[in-house]
Amino acid sequence: MKPTPPLVKVAVPVPLADAFDYVAPGAGPVPPIGCRVRVPFGRGERIGIVVEHPATTPVAASRLKPIGAVLDREPAIGEELLSSLRWAAEYYHHPLGAVLSHALPGLLREGRAIDELPEPAWQLTSLGRAQDPAELPRTARQQRRALQFLRERPLAASELKALDVASAALARLAEKGWVEPAAAASRLASALEPQASPGAAPELTGDQRRVLEEIGATQASKAFRAYLLHGVTGSGKTEVYLRLIAAELAANRQTLLLVPEIGLTPQLTRRLAERFGETELAVLHSAVTERERFDAWRRAYRGDARLIVGTRSAVFAPLPSPGLIVVDEEHDASYKQQTGFRYSARDLAVVRAQRLGVPIVLGSATPSLETFHNARQGRYRTLALPRRIGSAGTPKVRVVDLNLHASRHGLSTPLVAAIGQHLAAGNQVLLFLNRRGFAPALFCPQCKATEQCRRCDARMTVHAKAGVVRCHHCGAERALDFACRSCRGERIAVGAGTQRVGDEVAALFPAARVARLDRDSTSRKGSLAAVLSDVAAGNVEILLGTQMLTKGHDFPRVTLVGVLNADQGLFGTDPRSHERLAQTILQVAGRAGRADRPGEVVIQTHHPTHPLLTCLLERDYAAFAALALEERRDAGWPPFAHLAIWHAEAARRDSAIGFLELVRDTAAVDSGSVAVLGPAPLAMERKDGRFRAQLLFRSAERGPLHRLVERTLAAVRGSAAARRARWSIDIDPLEI
Rounded to two decimals, what is the model's pTM? Predict the structure, then answer.
C-alpha cells in the first residue's frame, strides 16, 4: 500500500483568513516551517509560506494538491518572526498569508532565491574620482554620465542602465582603472551618508551615564525589558542610542533601529556612519530600490549586518543574532500603517523584543499617551534625560495674543521684531506653520464661494508659482483662474500657506536668504538634503516649514522658533487632537537654542489662556500628559478603552454605508459590553471620487472587543455587501 505523503499547511497571500492544506512533494524532504513554496491555487499558482505540518486534514485526499516547488532550503521567516507575525495577523485581524508576504522583500515574494548572487554594482576608484567628466570627449557621452552619477554614490548596473549608461561604457572605464565593482554593503552604506572615519564619542552627562548603566545591565543579562527614554529635545538621546549600539556591536549582536522617516533624519544616519565607520549597515526604507532592499534583508538574515536601520517596515527584518531594538520618536504617527495591513511598528517592535528576549528602548521628548500610561502602570521602565546638553538651556517662551496683535500673512508685529533681532545677532530663524486647514485657498468675496475639488469634499490649494490650484488629497490640478466660476467676480487667495509666508518674509527681510521645508519644496530627489546642507552651512537665515520641521532635525544655529498658529487642534473633535498639538508645539520649539546659543520661542495664538497651552508653557509635557490622561479616563478613550474602526469606501454612498450597516446589525446580535457606534460618513466623505464611511467598536476591555470583531468578520466577509465596497479594519486607530 502506497504511504500517504506528509501534509503541509501553507499561508497564501489572499484575502482569506485560513491557511490551506497541501501534500509535500514526492521527492526530497518535507519543507520546513517558514520556507517559501510555490503552490497551485485556483487557476494559477501562488507563493506561500509553510506554517504547519498537520497530522490530519478535513480535506478529502482526492482534493489535496501537491506543492509545486520548494523555494528555500532554510526558512525565509524564522521561528521568532513567524510567531510575531502570527500574533500580528490575529491582533490586527488580517489574513496570515498577506501578513507573512508583507514581511518579505518584493523580490522574495516573486520567488527569487535567497542565495542568488548580488546584482553587480559599480563605484569610482580614487583615480576615477580625480577625473573631470567634462574633459572626456563628446564621443564618450555615456562614460561622462557614468562618472557624474557615480560621484554621488555607488550604483547597481540596472540603475546605471536606467540612466542610459551601457555596460560597454562601464567596461571601458574599468579598463582605465576609473571604476570598480562595489559590494552591496558599501553602496547601502553610501545610501545613508558618505563613509567617514570613526568619530570620537563626546563626553557623557551624568544623566546619560545613569541611563546607560541601567539599560546596559539588561543588555548584559540578555533579557527583555521595555524602557521609555523620556528626554527633552537636545538632551542627548541619540548619543545614548549610539553607546547602546556600540555595546551590541562589541558583543557581535544585532541592533534594529527604527526611525519615523529616514529621509527626514539625515543627521542620525550621518552620525551612525561617522561613529561606526565600516561597520556593515542594512538600510530598509522606501527610498532604496527593490534590489537594494533584498540585499539589505539578506545581510540581516545571514547575520552579516549588525545594525539594521529603517522606517516602519524595517520592523520585519530578520534578526538571527538579536541584541537590542530602539524606536526613535516613538510617538510619531508614521509608525502606524494607514492602509491594508494596519499594523503599528512600535507595538510590533515591543512584541518582537519580548519574543526575542532583548531590551527595547522607546525614545521621545513627547511620548504618546499610551506609552506614558504603560510606563505609569509599570509595564515600561521610565528613564529621564531632563536637561539639555551645553549651556543653551531651555528656550525662553513668549506667547503673542493674536486678538491684540494683528498678523499679516501669519506674521504678527512682535514676531517680526523678534526675527529682526535674531538675524541682526547673526543667528538663524525657524518659522513653523501647521499646514492642515491653513493653506491658501481661492475665495470669492462677492458670493462667498471657494474653489472645490470635483472628486473630493475639499478645497483646492493655491500654488501661485506653478500657476495651478491642486487638491492635496487626490492630486487633481486645474489652472489658476481668479475669475469666480459661480458669479464671475474676482477671487482672492486667503490663508497663509508656506509659499505666501515665504514671500512676505522675503519682502520684510530682503537681505535674508529664505528656504522652505515642506512636501512641495522637497519633492525632488536630493532637494531635502540640499536644504538641510544649506542650513547647516549657514547659507540660509530663515527656514520656513510644516510638519517636516518636527521630525528630529538638529539646527544648532537656530535661536528663534516662531509657531505661526498654535490654535490648530485646540478644538478638534478627535480625542488625540490635543496630544498631537502638544507634541507638535514642543517638538518644533525644541529646535531653538542648541549647542551654546540660547533660544527663544514665539507662539502666536488667539487663545493664550487655553488650559492646554498654559499647562505646556507653565509646567512641562509630563504635567500635560497626566492631565490629558485624566480627561481620557473620564471620557472613556484610549488608553482606558480599546477601539476598532471598520472603514468602507465605494463609488456609491449606499454601497459603503450598506456594508457597515450589515456589520453593525451582525455585531448587535451579541455585542455584550462592546459599544457599536455608527455608521457615519467621514468628515471628508468623498475622496478621489469614492464615498467613505466608518463604524466604531469601543470596549473597556481588549478581549471582548477582539472576540466581537472576529465573530463579525467571519459572518460578513463572504457577503454580497462586502463585495460591493472596499473595506478594512483598523485596530487601535490613531484617527477617529
Answer: 0.84
